[in-house]
Amino acid sequence: MAGDAAAVAELAEQLAQSFSFAPERFRESYAALLGDDGACLLLAVDGGEAVGYLLGFRHLTFYANGPVGWVEEVLVQPSRRAGGVGRLLMGEFERWAARRGCALVALATRRAAGFYAALGYEESARYFRKLLPSG
Ligand SMILES: CC(C)(COP(=O)(O)OP(=O)(O)OC[C@H]1O[C@@H](n2cnc3c(N)ncnc32)[C@H](O)[C@@H]1OP(=O)(O)O)[C@@H](O)C(=O)NCCC(=O)NCCS
Fold first, then answer.
1. Residue 130: phi, psi to the nearest 5?
2. Which CATH number fits domain 2-118: 3.40.630.30, 1.25.40.10, 3.30.70.1350, 3.20.20.10?
3. CA distance linking residue 30 with residue 132, whole number of Å
4. Is the CB–ligand 1 distance for residue 54 below 6 Å?
5. Is there an atom of ligand 1 within 6 Å of 83 CB?
6. Which atom of ligand 1 is nearest to the CA of 85?
7. How far is the CA of 95 from the centre of ligand 1 (A)?
8. For a substitution probing ligand 1, which of 115, 121, 129 has the most ligand atoms within 8 Å of its CB?
9. Do residues 90 and 107 lie in contact, with contact meaning Cβ atoms separated by under 8 Å?
10. Quick one: which atom of ligand 1 is closest to the CA of 111?
11. Number of Cβ atoms within 10 Å of the Cβ of 74
12. CA 83 to mean position of chain CA atoms
């Protein structure tokens, strides 16, 4: 629904830090993600209000003998934090990934290590990245 796209955009903009949020790129990505079987986009709604979202993926690996789940983005509205919404979103993604045969769910985080630890995640690797010149 168009309203869902606007709600996800509003939430996703809050997560953007390294890159400034670009509405036209969001629209392209949103449409592509809805048609992508390997993508999972969740929007948490309470009483008609969008309170959080999660974007995750299933992809194939050699190291895990098959698919794994990867959480790319998760955000809960500041006024709705500490109320269990993040846990609900992660639990739903875990079930989505498990149904698709994923051996594990993983993610990288800078700001929310305590959240993932509370959900039973264990620290496993350090995260490196390199920004590429835009095309
Ligand atoms: C991280 C975030 C998604 C958590 O969502 P939330 O709805 O507040 O989390 P919940 O209320 O479901 O918390 C679940 C558990 O994690 C714990 N927790 C949540 N945030 C935490 C934090 N920053 N540090 C330590 N523990 C935390 C809660 O205490 C709770 O534990 P409990 O169930 O044992 O009491 C939310 O704080 C957020 O949107 N942060 C900004 C964006 C962000 O950092 N996203 C992650 C990018 S990788």
1. -135, 120
2. 3.40.630.30
3. 22
4. no
5. yes
6. 7
7. 19
8. 115
9. no
10. 44
11. 24
12. 18
pLDDT in tens, 76-124: 999 999 999 999 999 999 999 999 999 999 999 999 999 999 999 999 9
Query: What are the boundaries of each domain within the chain?
Result: 2-118
Ligand 1 within 6 A of CB of 48: no
3-class DSSP state of 36: coil
133 token code pair: 């010149």
Model pTM?
A: 0.96
Number of H helices, E strands in the chain: 4, 4
What separation, in Å, do the N-terminal and C-terminal C-alpha atoms of the chain show? 31
Residue type, 101: G
